[in-house]
Amino acid sequence: MSRFMHIGRGLYGIWLREVMRAVRDRGQLIGGVSRPLIWLLILGIGLNPYFRGEVYGEVRFVIPYTYLQFLFPAVIVLNIMYTSIQFAVSVIWDREFGFLRAILISPVPRWIILLGKILGGSTVATGHGALVLILARFADITLSWDQVALALLLMFGLSFGLTSFGVILAARVRSFEGFGVFSNTIILPLYFCSSSIFPLDPSLTRAQTVALYPEWLVFLVEINPITYAVDALRGVLINFHQFDPRLGPMVIGGMTVVFFLSALFDFRRR
Amino acid sequence: MGTESANGIEITNLSHAFAGRTVLSNIDMSVPDGSSVALLGPNGAGKTTLMNILCALLTPDSGRVMLGEMDLARQPDAVRRKIGAVFQDPSLDTRLSAWENLDFHGLIYGLSRRERKRRAAEVLELVELDAWRDEIVRTFSGGMKRRLEIARALMHQPSILFLDEPTTGLDPQSRARIWSYLEGLRASDNLTQVITTHYVEEVEDHDYIYIIDQGRLIASGTPHELKSRHGTSMIRCLPRDATTEEELMAAYPEAMPLADGRIGITLGAGDMLDAFLGRFGARLRQIQIDEPSLATVFLALTGREIDQRTPGAPKKAAGVQ
Ligand SMILES: Nc1ncnc2c1ncn2[C@@H]1O[C@H](COP(=O)(O)OP(=O)(O)OP(=O)(O)O)[C@@H](O)[C@H]1O
Ligand SMILES: [Mg+2]
User: Are A249 and A153 in contact (CB under 8 A)?
Assistant: First the structure.
Protein backbone atom coordinates (compact mmCIF):
# COMPACT_ATOMS: atom_id res chain seq x y z
CA MET A 1 0.00 0.00 0.00
CA SER A 2 2.67 2.46 0.98
CA ARG A 3 4.80 1.33 -1.91
CA PHE A 4 1.83 1.97 -4.18
CA MET A 5 1.48 5.49 -2.73
CA HIS A 6 5.17 6.17 -3.23
CA ILE A 7 5.06 5.10 -6.86
CA GLY A 8 1.88 7.08 -7.39
CA ARG A 9 3.55 10.24 -6.09
CA GLY A 10 6.53 9.65 -8.34
CA LEU A 11 4.28 9.24 -11.36
CA TYR A 12 2.35 12.36 -10.42
CA GLY A 13 5.56 14.37 -9.95
CA ILE A 14 6.97 13.41 -13.32
CA TRP A 15 3.63 14.09 -15.03
CA LEU A 16 3.23 17.42 -13.26
CA ARG A 17 6.66 18.66 -14.30
CA GLU A 18 5.88 18.07 -17.98
CA VAL A 19 2.57 19.88 -17.73
CA MET A 20 4.09 22.81 -15.82
CA ARG A 21 6.87 23.15 -18.33
CA ALA A 22 4.43 23.25 -21.23
CA VAL A 23 2.13 25.79 -19.61
CA ARG A 24 5.11 28.09 -19.05
CA ASP A 25 6.55 27.64 -22.51
CA ARG A 26 5.19 30.65 -24.40
CA GLY A 27 6.58 29.57 -27.76
CA GLN A 28 4.87 26.21 -27.66
CA LEU A 29 1.59 27.77 -26.58
CA ILE A 30 1.71 30.35 -29.37
CA GLY A 31 2.37 27.57 -31.89
CA GLY A 32 -0.51 25.56 -30.50
CA VAL A 33 -2.91 28.46 -30.96
CA SER A 34 -1.66 29.96 -34.21
CA ARG A 35 -1.31 26.70 -36.14
CA PRO A 36 -5.02 25.81 -36.15
CA LEU A 37 -5.96 29.41 -36.83
CA ILE A 38 -3.75 29.51 -39.91
CA TRP A 39 -4.93 26.16 -41.20
CA LEU A 40 -8.59 26.82 -40.63
CA LEU A 41 -8.75 30.52 -41.44
CA ILE A 42 -6.51 30.57 -44.46
CA LEU A 43 -6.49 27.10 -45.97
CA GLY A 44 -9.95 26.14 -44.77
CA ILE A 45 -11.76 29.31 -45.80
CA GLY A 46 -9.67 29.65 -48.91
CA LEU A 47 -10.51 26.21 -50.28
CA ASN A 48 -14.06 26.04 -48.96
CA PRO A 49 -15.71 27.18 -52.24
CA TYR A 50 -13.79 24.64 -54.34
CA PHE A 51 -14.52 21.63 -52.24
CA ARG A 52 -17.84 20.56 -53.61
CA GLY A 53 -16.99 21.88 -57.01
CA GLU A 54 -19.32 20.82 -59.76
CA VAL A 55 -17.29 20.13 -62.83
CA TYR A 56 -19.39 20.71 -65.91
CA GLY A 57 -22.51 20.22 -63.91
CA GLU A 58 -21.37 16.88 -62.53
CA VAL A 59 -20.90 16.61 -58.76
CA ARG A 60 -17.56 14.92 -58.19
CA PHE A 61 -17.61 14.27 -54.51
CA VAL A 62 -20.52 13.07 -52.55
CA ILE A 63 -19.37 14.35 -49.20
CA PRO A 64 -22.16 16.26 -47.57
CA TYR A 65 -19.84 18.60 -45.69
CA THR A 66 -18.10 21.87 -46.23
CA TYR A 67 -14.34 21.87 -46.58
CA LEU A 68 -13.98 23.58 -43.22
CA GLN A 69 -15.93 20.77 -41.59
CA PHE A 70 -13.92 18.20 -43.47
CA LEU A 71 -10.61 19.80 -42.52
CA PHE A 72 -11.46 20.51 -38.89
CA PRO A 73 -10.75 17.04 -37.41
CA ALA A 74 -7.50 16.87 -39.37
CA VAL A 75 -6.28 20.15 -37.88
CA ILE A 76 -6.83 18.67 -34.42
CA VAL A 77 -4.63 15.76 -35.46
CA LEU A 78 -2.02 18.15 -36.86
CA ASN A 79 -1.81 20.05 -33.58
CA ILE A 80 -1.47 16.81 -31.67
CA MET A 81 1.26 15.58 -34.03
CA TYR A 82 3.35 18.69 -33.60
CA THR A 83 3.07 18.80 -29.84
CA SER A 84 3.60 15.07 -29.34
CA ILE A 85 6.62 14.74 -31.55
CA GLN A 86 8.07 17.98 -30.24
CA PHE A 87 7.92 16.29 -26.85
CA ALA A 88 11.11 14.48 -27.80
CA VAL A 89 12.89 17.78 -27.12
CA SER A 90 11.94 17.48 -23.47
CA VAL A 91 13.43 13.99 -23.36
CA ILE A 92 16.64 15.16 -25.03
CA TRP A 93 16.77 18.11 -22.62
CA ASP A 94 16.58 15.82 -19.59
CA ARG A 95 19.30 13.63 -20.96
CA GLU A 96 21.68 16.35 -22.11
CA PHE A 97 21.32 18.56 -19.04
CA GLY A 98 21.76 15.71 -16.61
CA PHE A 99 18.31 15.97 -15.06
CA LEU A 100 17.57 12.38 -15.99
CA ARG A 101 20.34 11.17 -13.69
CA ALA A 102 18.69 12.88 -10.75
CA ILE A 103 15.52 10.90 -11.50
CA LEU A 104 17.34 7.65 -12.24
CA ILE A 105 18.97 7.48 -8.80
CA SER A 106 15.56 7.76 -7.12
CA PRO A 107 13.59 4.64 -6.19
CA VAL A 108 10.98 5.27 -8.92
CA PRO A 109 10.96 2.25 -11.26
CA ARG A 110 12.14 2.97 -14.76
CA TRP A 111 8.89 2.15 -16.47
CA ILE A 112 7.07 4.59 -14.17
CA ILE A 113 9.54 7.31 -15.14
CA LEU A 114 8.82 6.69 -18.79
CA LEU A 115 5.07 6.37 -18.25
CA GLY A 116 4.99 9.62 -16.26
CA LYS A 117 6.83 11.51 -18.94
CA ILE A 118 4.68 10.13 -21.74
CA LEU A 119 1.45 10.75 -19.83
CA GLY A 120 2.62 14.33 -19.24
CA GLY A 121 3.44 14.81 -22.91
CA SER A 122 0.11 13.27 -23.97
CA THR A 123 -1.81 15.53 -21.62
CA VAL A 124 -0.15 18.57 -23.16
CA ALA A 125 -0.76 17.32 -26.71
CA THR A 126 -4.40 16.55 -25.94
CA GLY A 127 -4.66 20.05 -24.53
CA HIS A 128 -3.34 21.50 -27.77
CA GLY A 129 -5.84 19.37 -29.68
CA ALA A 130 -8.60 20.66 -27.41
CA LEU A 131 -7.60 24.23 -28.26
CA VAL A 132 -8.78 23.43 -31.78
CA LEU A 133 -12.07 22.02 -30.47
CA ILE A 134 -12.86 25.49 -29.13
CA LEU A 135 -13.02 26.66 -32.73
CA ALA A 136 -15.70 24.09 -33.63
CA ARG A 137 -18.52 26.62 -33.73
CA PHE A 138 -16.53 28.66 -36.17
CA ALA A 139 -16.17 25.68 -38.54
CA ASP A 140 -19.92 25.20 -38.35
CA ILE A 141 -19.72 22.09 -36.23
CA THR A 142 -22.03 21.69 -33.26
CA LEU A 143 -20.98 19.19 -30.69
CA SER A 144 -22.75 17.42 -27.87
CA TRP A 145 -20.88 16.67 -24.67
CA ASP A 146 -20.63 12.98 -25.38
CA GLN A 147 -19.12 13.76 -28.78
CA VAL A 148 -16.56 15.97 -27.03
CA ALA A 149 -15.80 13.26 -24.48
CA LEU A 150 -15.36 10.61 -27.14
CA ALA A 151 -13.18 12.92 -29.23
CA LEU A 152 -10.99 13.71 -26.21
CA LEU A 153 -10.58 10.01 -25.55
CA LEU A 154 -9.43 9.34 -29.11
CA MET A 155 -7.20 12.41 -29.02
CA PHE A 156 -5.57 11.23 -25.82
CA GLY A 157 -4.94 7.79 -27.30
CA LEU A 158 -3.38 9.32 -30.38
CA SER A 159 -1.30 11.70 -28.25
CA PHE A 160 -0.04 8.83 -26.14
CA GLY A 161 1.02 6.85 -29.20
CA LEU A 162 2.71 9.78 -30.91
CA THR A 163 4.42 10.97 -27.72
CA SER A 164 5.88 7.49 -27.31
CA PHE A 165 7.00 7.73 -30.92
CA GLY A 166 8.71 11.05 -30.07
CA VAL A 167 10.56 9.33 -27.24
CA ILE A 168 11.77 6.63 -29.62
CA LEU A 169 13.06 9.36 -31.94
CA ALA A 170 14.77 11.12 -29.04
CA ALA A 171 16.74 8.00 -28.25
CA ARG A 172 18.18 8.15 -31.76
CA VAL A 173 18.93 11.85 -32.02
CA ARG A 174 21.98 13.47 -30.47
CA SER A 175 21.21 17.17 -30.66
CA PHE A 176 18.33 19.61 -30.50
CA GLU A 177 19.19 21.09 -33.90
CA GLY A 178 19.17 17.72 -35.55
CA PHE A 179 15.79 17.08 -34.08
CA GLY A 180 14.18 20.26 -35.46
CA VAL A 181 14.95 19.29 -39.03
CA PHE A 182 13.97 15.73 -38.37
CA SER A 183 10.56 16.52 -36.92
CA ASN A 184 9.52 18.74 -39.82
CA THR A 185 10.48 16.15 -42.38
CA ILE A 186 8.33 13.63 -40.56
CA ILE A 187 5.25 15.56 -39.49
CA LEU A 188 4.19 17.29 -42.69
CA PRO A 189 4.47 14.33 -45.09
CA LEU A 190 2.56 12.14 -42.64
CA TYR A 191 -0.07 14.82 -42.33
CA PHE A 192 -0.48 15.43 -46.05
CA CYS A 193 -0.70 11.70 -46.74
CA SER A 194 -3.46 11.09 -44.22
CA SER A 195 -6.37 12.20 -46.36
CA SER A 196 -6.41 15.21 -44.09
CA ILE A 197 -6.70 17.93 -46.71
CA PHE A 198 -8.23 15.95 -49.55
CA PRO A 199 -10.67 13.03 -49.43
CA LEU A 200 -10.31 9.69 -51.08
CA ASP A 201 -13.88 9.47 -52.16
CA PRO A 202 -15.40 6.42 -50.44
CA SER A 203 -18.29 6.30 -52.87
CA LEU A 204 -15.94 5.41 -55.66
CA THR A 205 -14.56 1.94 -56.13
CA ARG A 206 -10.88 1.43 -55.61
CA ALA A 207 -10.42 1.31 -59.39
CA GLN A 208 -12.15 4.65 -59.74
CA THR A 209 -10.12 6.19 -56.92
CA VAL A 210 -6.92 5.05 -58.53
CA ALA A 211 -8.08 6.51 -61.80
CA LEU A 212 -8.60 9.83 -60.05
CA TYR A 213 -5.36 9.79 -58.04
CA PRO A 214 -2.09 8.11 -58.89
CA GLU A 215 -1.80 4.69 -57.32
CA TRP A 216 1.26 5.54 -55.21
CA LEU A 217 -0.59 8.36 -53.47
CA VAL A 218 -3.55 6.15 -52.64
CA PHE A 219 -1.09 3.58 -51.36
CA LEU A 220 0.68 6.10 -49.14
CA VAL A 221 -2.60 7.28 -47.69
CA GLU A 222 -3.77 3.77 -47.01
CA ILE A 223 -0.64 2.62 -45.20
CA ASN A 224 -0.37 5.78 -43.12
CA PRO A 225 -1.70 5.17 -39.59
CA ILE A 226 -2.50 8.87 -39.20
CA THR A 227 -5.14 8.40 -41.92
CA TYR A 228 -7.16 6.21 -39.60
CA ALA A 229 -6.75 8.57 -36.66
CA VAL A 230 -8.12 11.40 -38.77
CA ASP A 231 -10.90 9.14 -39.96
CA ALA A 232 -11.84 8.18 -36.41
CA LEU A 233 -12.06 11.83 -35.35
CA ARG A 234 -14.14 12.68 -38.43
CA GLY A 235 -16.48 9.90 -37.45
CA VAL A 236 -16.98 11.36 -34.00
CA LEU A 237 -17.08 15.05 -34.92
CA ILE A 238 -18.89 15.16 -38.27
CA ASN A 239 -20.14 11.59 -38.52
CA PHE A 240 -18.24 10.87 -41.72
CA HIS A 241 -16.01 7.88 -42.37
CA GLN A 242 -13.94 7.03 -45.39
CA PHE A 243 -12.89 3.69 -43.97
CA ASP A 244 -14.35 1.01 -41.79
CA PRO A 245 -15.20 2.83 -38.53
CA ARG A 246 -13.58 0.08 -36.47
CA LEU A 247 -10.19 0.72 -38.08
CA GLY A 248 -9.60 4.11 -36.42
CA PRO A 249 -9.75 3.05 -32.76
CA MET A 250 -7.87 -0.14 -33.61
CA VAL A 251 -5.01 1.70 -35.27
CA ILE A 252 -4.82 4.26 -32.46
CA GLY A 253 -4.85 1.48 -29.86
CA GLY A 254 -2.20 -0.42 -31.79
CA MET A 255 0.04 2.64 -32.01
CA THR A 256 -0.15 3.34 -28.27
CA VAL A 257 0.77 -0.21 -27.37
CA VAL A 258 3.49 -0.76 -29.97
CA PHE A 259 5.16 2.62 -29.56
CA PHE A 260 5.02 2.60 -25.76
CA LEU A 261 6.53 -0.87 -25.61
CA SER A 262 9.34 0.02 -28.00
CA ALA A 263 10.02 3.23 -26.08
CA LEU A 264 10.19 1.16 -22.91
CA PHE A 265 12.52 -1.31 -24.54
CA ASP A 266 14.84 1.55 -25.58
CA PHE A 267 14.75 3.11 -22.14
CA ARG A 268 15.44 -0.13 -20.29
CA ARG A 269 18.46 -0.85 -22.40
CA ARG A 270 20.19 2.44 -21.70
CA MET B 1 23.62 -6.80 13.24
CA GLY B 2 26.47 -4.40 13.61
CA THR B 3 24.92 -0.99 14.06
CA GLU B 4 28.45 0.21 13.50
CA SER B 5 28.23 -0.50 9.79
CA ALA B 6 24.57 0.43 9.28
CA ASN B 7 25.39 3.32 6.99
CA GLY B 8 28.90 2.42 6.05
CA ILE B 9 30.18 1.29 2.67
CA GLU B 10 32.35 -1.68 1.83
CA ILE B 11 33.76 -1.97 -1.66
CA THR B 12 35.53 -5.18 -2.53
CA ASN B 13 37.68 -5.81 -5.57
CA LEU B 14 35.71 -3.52 -7.86
CA SER B 15 36.72 -3.29 -11.53
CA HIS B 16 35.19 -1.64 -14.53
CA ALA B 17 36.14 -1.13 -18.17
CA PHE B 18 34.60 1.00 -20.91
CA ALA B 19 34.87 -0.66 -24.31
CA GLY B 20 37.82 -2.74 -23.22
CA ARG B 21 39.68 0.13 -21.57
CA THR B 22 40.08 -0.39 -17.86
CA VAL B 23 38.90 2.60 -15.89
CA LEU B 24 38.79 1.11 -12.40
CA SER B 25 40.85 -1.85 -11.33
CA ASN B 26 40.58 -3.85 -8.13
CA ILE B 27 39.32 -1.10 -5.90
CA ASP B 28 38.92 -1.94 -2.21
CA MET B 29 37.50 0.75 -0.02
CA SER B 30 35.75 1.03 3.26
CA VAL B 31 33.78 3.98 4.54
CA PRO B 32 32.77 3.74 8.21
CA ASP B 33 29.29 4.81 9.30
CA GLY B 34 29.08 8.56 9.84
CA SER B 35 32.52 9.31 8.53
CA SER B 36 33.58 11.50 5.70
CA VAL B 37 35.86 10.10 3.09
CA ALA B 38 37.54 11.96 0.27
CA LEU B 39 38.52 10.47 -3.06
CA LEU B 40 41.41 12.46 -4.39
CA GLY B 41 42.61 12.05 -7.93
CA PRO B 42 43.49 13.91 -11.12
CA ASN B 43 41.26 14.30 -14.20
CA GLY B 44 40.28 10.97 -15.68
CA ALA B 45 41.28 9.00 -12.60
CA GLY B 46 37.91 7.25 -12.48
CA LYS B 47 36.29 9.15 -9.61
CA THR B 48 33.02 9.85 -11.40
CA THR B 49 32.84 6.29 -12.68
CA LEU B 50 33.16 5.05 -9.12
CA MET B 51 30.47 7.48 -7.95
CA ASN B 52 28.13 6.29 -10.71
CA ILE B 53 28.64 2.73 -9.59
CA LEU B 54 27.94 3.63 -5.97
CA CYS B 55 24.71 5.40 -7.01
CA ALA B 56 23.60 2.29 -8.94
CA LEU B 57 23.65 4.24 -12.20
CA LEU B 58 26.31 1.97 -13.62
CA THR B 59 26.76 -1.76 -13.10
CA PRO B 60 30.40 -2.64 -12.55
CA ASP B 61 32.04 -5.46 -14.47
CA SER B 62 33.06 -7.18 -11.27
CA GLY B 63 33.35 -6.64 -7.56
CA ARG B 64 30.94 -6.11 -4.71
CA VAL B 65 29.51 -3.03 -3.06
CA MET B 66 27.77 -3.27 0.30
CA LEU B 67 25.93 -0.30 1.76
CA GLY B 68 25.26 -1.16 5.34
CA GLU B 69 23.83 -4.67 5.18
CA MET B 70 22.57 -4.27 1.64
CA ASP B 71 24.22 -5.55 -1.47
CA LEU B 72 24.00 -2.90 -4.16
CA ALA B 73 23.69 -5.45 -6.95
CA ARG B 74 20.85 -7.34 -5.24
CA GLN B 75 18.83 -4.56 -3.61
CA PRO B 76 19.36 -1.44 -5.68
CA ASP B 77 15.91 -0.09 -4.78
CA ALA B 78 16.41 -0.32 -1.05
CA VAL B 79 19.81 1.29 -1.47
CA ARG B 80 18.36 4.15 -3.49
CA ARG B 81 16.20 5.35 -0.59
CA LYS B 82 19.28 5.61 1.60
CA ILE B 83 21.52 7.58 -0.67
CA GLY B 84 21.61 11.10 -1.98
CA ALA B 85 23.93 12.42 -4.65
CA VAL B 86 25.29 15.66 -6.02
CA PHE B 87 26.65 15.05 -9.50
CA GLN B 88 29.69 16.62 -11.05
CA ASP B 89 27.57 18.21 -13.79
CA PRO B 90 24.60 20.35 -12.85
CA SER B 91 21.29 18.51 -12.89
CA LEU B 92 18.64 20.98 -11.78
CA ASP B 93 15.65 21.93 -13.89
CA THR B 94 16.62 25.53 -14.55
CA ARG B 95 13.14 26.42 -15.76
CA LEU B 96 11.56 25.65 -12.41
CA SER B 97 11.90 27.58 -9.18
CA ALA B 98 14.06 26.40 -6.30
CA TRP B 99 10.99 25.26 -4.43
CA GLU B 100 9.58 23.39 -7.42
CA ASN B 101 12.85 21.53 -7.91
CA LEU B 102 12.76 20.42 -4.29
CA ASP B 103 9.08 19.53 -4.44
CA PHE B 104 9.65 17.42 -7.53
CA HIS B 105 12.46 15.60 -5.80
CA GLY B 106 10.27 14.99 -2.75
CA LEU B 107 7.56 13.54 -4.97
CA ILE B 108 9.81 11.06 -6.71
CA TYR B 109 10.97 9.87 -3.29
CA GLY B 110 7.35 9.40 -2.30
CA LEU B 111 7.19 12.10 0.42
CA SER B 112 3.74 13.31 1.43
CA ARG B 113 2.74 16.91 0.83
CA ARG B 114 3.34 17.80 4.46
CA GLU B 115 6.78 16.16 4.54
CA ARG B 116 7.75 17.89 1.31
CA LYS B 117 6.80 21.26 2.72
CA ARG B 118 8.69 20.69 5.93
CA ARG B 119 11.82 19.27 4.35
CA ALA B 120 12.01 21.82 1.55
CA ALA B 121 11.86 24.64 4.09
CA GLU B 122 14.52 22.94 6.23
CA VAL B 123 17.00 22.28 3.46
CA LEU B 124 16.53 25.72 1.92
CA GLU B 125 17.32 27.23 5.27
CA LEU B 126 20.36 25.00 5.65
CA VAL B 127 21.89 26.21 2.41
CA GLU B 128 20.75 29.80 3.01
CA LEU B 129 18.50 30.01 -0.02
CA ASP B 130 15.16 30.58 1.72
CA ALA B 131 14.94 34.07 0.26
CA TRP B 132 15.18 32.64 -3.23
CA ARG B 133 12.66 29.86 -2.89
CA ASP B 134 10.34 31.13 -5.61
CA GLU B 135 12.96 32.35 -8.05
CA ILE B 136 13.55 30.46 -11.29
CA VAL B 137 16.82 28.54 -11.05
CA ARG B 138 18.06 29.88 -14.39
CA THR B 139 18.77 33.19 -12.66
CA PHE B 140 20.95 31.61 -9.94
CA SER B 141 24.73 31.93 -9.75
CA GLY B 142 26.90 28.83 -10.00
CA GLY B 143 27.40 28.71 -6.24
CA MET B 144 23.69 29.06 -5.55
CA LYS B 145 22.88 26.25 -7.97
CA ARG B 146 25.39 24.01 -6.26
CA ARG B 147 23.94 24.79 -2.85
CA LEU B 148 20.46 24.03 -4.16
CA GLU B 149 21.70 20.71 -5.51
CA ILE B 150 23.02 19.85 -2.07
CA ALA B 151 19.69 20.84 -0.57
CA ARG B 152 17.90 18.68 -3.07
CA ALA B 153 20.10 15.66 -2.33
CA LEU B 154 19.14 16.03 1.35
CA MET B 155 15.35 16.31 0.77
CA HIS B 156 14.63 12.65 1.45
CA GLN B 157 17.00 12.48 4.44
CA PRO B 158 19.54 10.05 3.05
CA SER B 159 22.00 8.43 5.40
CA ILE B 160 24.78 8.42 2.82
CA LEU B 161 25.63 11.40 0.64
CA PHE B 162 27.80 11.22 -2.47
CA LEU B 163 29.28 14.46 -3.75
CA ASP B 164 31.23 14.49 -7.00
CA GLU B 165 33.44 17.56 -7.04
CA PRO B 166 30.91 19.70 -5.20
CA THR B 167 33.14 22.75 -5.22
CA THR B 168 34.82 22.64 -8.62
CA GLY B 169 34.54 25.90 -10.48
CA LEU B 170 33.28 27.88 -7.49
CA ASP B 171 34.82 30.91 -5.87
CA PRO B 172 36.59 30.43 -2.52
CA GLN B 173 33.71 31.95 -0.59
CA SER B 174 31.14 29.54 -2.02
CA ARG B 175 33.52 26.66 -1.47
CA ALA B 176 33.96 27.53 2.17
CA ARG B 177 30.19 27.75 2.64
CA ILE B 178 29.64 24.34 1.13
CA TRP B 179 32.26 22.75 3.33
CA SER B 180 30.74 24.30 6.40
CA TYR B 181 27.28 22.90 5.56
CA LEU B 182 28.74 19.46 5.03
CA GLU B 183 30.69 19.58 8.23
CA GLY B 184 27.56 20.62 10.08
CA LEU B 185 25.62 17.69 8.65
CA ARG B 186 28.25 15.24 9.76
CA ALA B 187 28.05 16.58 13.29
CA SER B 188 24.25 16.89 13.53
CA ASP B 189 22.87 14.08 11.34
CA ASN B 190 25.67 11.52 11.44
CA LEU B 191 25.59 11.63 7.65
CA THR B 192 28.15 9.43 5.90
CA GLN B 193 29.82 11.42 3.14
CA VAL B 194 31.89 10.39 0.16
CA ILE B 195 33.39 13.30 -1.70
CA THR B 196 35.58 13.48 -4.76
CA THR B 197 37.82 16.38 -5.49
CA HIS B 198 41.07 17.33 -7.07
CA TYR B 199 41.59 20.32 -4.83
CA VAL B 200 44.26 18.95 -2.55
CA GLU B 201 43.79 21.69 -0.01
CA GLU B 202 40.15 20.62 0.50
CA VAL B 203 40.71 17.10 1.75
CA GLU B 204 42.67 17.87 4.89
CA ASP B 205 39.56 17.96 7.05
CA HIS B 206 38.22 14.56 6.04
CA ASP B 207 38.45 11.49 8.23
CA TYR B 208 40.04 9.36 5.60
CA ILE B 209 41.47 9.84 2.14
CA TYR B 210 41.79 7.51 -0.80
CA ILE B 211 44.16 8.62 -3.52
CA ILE B 212 43.20 7.27 -6.90
CA ASP B 213 45.18 7.54 -10.10
CA GLN B 214 44.46 5.92 -13.45
CA GLY B 215 41.82 3.70 -11.93
CA ARG B 216 43.97 2.35 -9.12
CA LEU B 217 44.07 3.16 -5.44
CA ILE B 218 47.62 4.21 -4.83
CA ALA B 219 47.42 5.21 -1.19
CA SER B 220 44.96 5.65 1.64
CA GLY B 221 44.95 6.83 5.19
CA THR B 222 44.04 9.71 7.41
CA PRO B 223 45.54 12.99 6.22
CA HIS B 224 48.07 12.76 9.03
CA GLU B 225 49.05 9.18 8.18
CA LEU B 226 49.45 9.95 4.51
CA LYS B 227 51.67 12.90 5.17
CA SER B 228 53.87 11.15 7.66
CA ARG B 229 54.14 8.05 5.47
CA HIS B 230 54.64 9.55 2.03
CA GLY B 231 54.96 13.25 2.59
CA THR B 232 58.25 14.90 1.93
CA SER B 233 59.27 18.48 1.56
CA MET B 234 59.75 19.44 -2.03
CA ILE B 235 61.63 21.99 -3.98
CA ARG B 236 59.86 23.17 -7.11
CA CYS B 237 61.99 25.40 -9.25
CA LEU B 238 62.31 26.86 -12.70
CA PRO B 239 65.92 26.87 -13.97
CA ARG B 240 67.13 30.02 -15.70
CA ASP B 241 68.53 28.23 -18.77
CA ALA B 242 69.09 24.87 -20.39
CA THR B 243 72.60 24.34 -19.03
CA THR B 244 71.41 24.87 -15.49
CA GLU B 245 68.66 22.38 -16.12
CA GLU B 246 71.03 19.74 -17.41
CA GLU B 247 73.43 20.26 -14.56
CA LEU B 248 70.59 20.09 -12.07
CA MET B 249 69.22 16.86 -13.49
CA ALA B 250 72.69 15.36 -13.40
CA ALA B 251 73.22 16.39 -9.80
CA TYR B 252 69.83 15.05 -8.65
CA PRO B 253 68.97 11.96 -10.71
CA GLU B 254 65.67 11.52 -8.87
CA ALA B 255 64.49 15.01 -9.88
CA MET B 256 61.14 15.08 -11.67
CA PRO B 257 60.32 17.26 -14.66
CA LEU B 258 57.01 19.06 -14.06
CA ALA B 259 54.74 21.18 -16.18
CA ASP B 260 56.01 24.46 -17.70
CA GLY B 261 59.67 23.43 -17.57
CA ARG B 262 59.77 23.34 -13.79
CA ILE B 263 61.58 20.65 -11.84
CA GLY B 264 60.59 18.96 -8.61
CA ILE B 265 63.16 17.60 -6.17
CA THR B 266 62.41 15.68 -3.02
CA LEU B 267 64.13 17.24 -0.07
CA GLY B 268 66.13 14.75 1.95
CA ALA B 269 67.37 15.18 5.46
CA GLY B 270 70.12 17.45 6.74
CA ASP B 271 71.65 20.25 4.77
CA MET B 272 70.38 19.21 1.34
CA LEU B 273 68.51 22.49 0.95
CA ASP B 274 71.60 24.52 1.80
CA ALA B 275 73.67 22.53 -0.67
CA PHE B 276 71.07 23.00 -3.37
CA LEU B 277 70.72 26.71 -2.82
CA GLY B 278 74.47 27.16 -2.62
CA ARG B 279 74.97 25.58 -5.97
CA PHE B 280 71.88 26.61 -7.96
CA GLY B 281 70.31 29.41 -5.94
CA ALA B 282 71.55 32.15 -8.22
CA ARG B 283 70.59 30.36 -11.42
CA LEU B 284 66.87 29.93 -10.86
CA ARG B 285 64.05 31.99 -12.22
CA GLN B 286 61.61 30.73 -9.57
CA ILE B 287 61.79 28.58 -6.49
CA GLN B 288 59.17 27.28 -4.12
CA ILE B 289 59.64 25.03 -1.13
CA ASP B 290 56.63 22.93 -0.19
CA GLU B 291 56.08 21.60 3.29
CA PRO B 292 54.79 18.02 3.38
CA SER B 293 51.19 18.20 2.16
CA LEU B 294 48.82 15.95 0.27
CA ALA B 295 50.03 17.65 -2.90
CA THR B 296 53.58 16.51 -2.24
CA VAL B 297 52.27 13.09 -1.26
CA PHE B 298 50.67 12.76 -4.66
CA LEU B 299 53.76 14.08 -6.39
CA ALA B 300 56.00 11.67 -4.50
CA LEU B 301 53.74 8.71 -5.31
CA THR B 302 53.17 9.37 -9.00
CA GLY B 303 55.85 11.76 -10.12
CA ARG B 304 53.10 14.09 -11.35
CA GLU B 305 51.33 17.03 -9.92
CA ILE B 306 47.70 16.30 -9.18
CA ASP B 307 46.43 19.49 -10.65
CA GLN B 308 48.53 21.46 -13.03
CA ARG B 309 47.21 24.84 -12.20
CA THR B 310 48.52 27.26 -9.66
CA PRO B 311 47.04 26.35 -6.27
CA GLY B 312 43.82 28.15 -5.40
CA ALA B 313 43.13 29.43 -8.92
CA PRO B 314 39.63 28.55 -10.05
CA LYS B 315 39.42 25.83 -12.63
CA LYS B 316 37.00 26.06 -15.50
CA ALA B 317 33.89 23.95 -14.99
CA ALA B 318 34.12 20.93 -17.23
CA GLY B 319 32.16 21.56 -20.38
CA VAL B 320 29.08 23.03 -18.80
CA GLN B 321 27.76 26.53 -19.07
N1 LIG C 1 30.71 6.44 -20.67
C2 LIG C 1 32.02 6.31 -20.91
N3 LIG C 1 32.45 5.65 -22.00
C4 LIG C 1 33.77 5.50 -22.24
N5 LIG C 1 34.74 5.99 -21.47
C6 LIG C 1 34.38 6.66 -20.36
C7 LIG C 1 32.99 6.86 -20.02
N8 LIG C 1 32.94 7.57 -18.87
C9 LIG C 1 34.21 7.80 -18.51
N10 LIG C 1 35.08 7.26 -19.39
C11 LIG C 1 36.54 7.28 -19.29
O12 LIG C 1 36.89 6.76 -18.03
C13 LIG C 1 37.98 7.48 -17.47
C14 LIG C 1 37.61 7.94 -16.09
O15 LIG C 1 36.61 8.92 -16.19
P16 LIG C 1 35.94 9.60 -14.93
O17 LIG C 1 34.91 10.54 -15.44
O18 LIG C 1 35.50 8.55 -13.99
O19 LIG C 1 37.18 10.41 -14.33
P20 LIG C 1 37.20 11.47 -13.15
O21 LIG C 1 38.18 10.99 -12.16
O22 LIG C 1 35.83 11.72 -12.66
O23 LIG C 1 37.78 12.75 -13.87
P24 LIG C 1 37.41 14.30 -13.67
O25 LIG C 1 38.24 14.80 -12.55
O26 LIG C 1 37.81 14.92 -14.96
O27 LIG C 1 35.95 14.39 -13.43
C28 LIG C 1 38.27 8.62 -18.43
O29 LIG C 1 39.42 8.28 -19.15
C30 LIG C 1 37.08 8.68 -19.33
O31 LIG C 1 37.47 9.05 -20.62
MG1 LIG D 1 34.65 13.28 -12.58
Answer: no
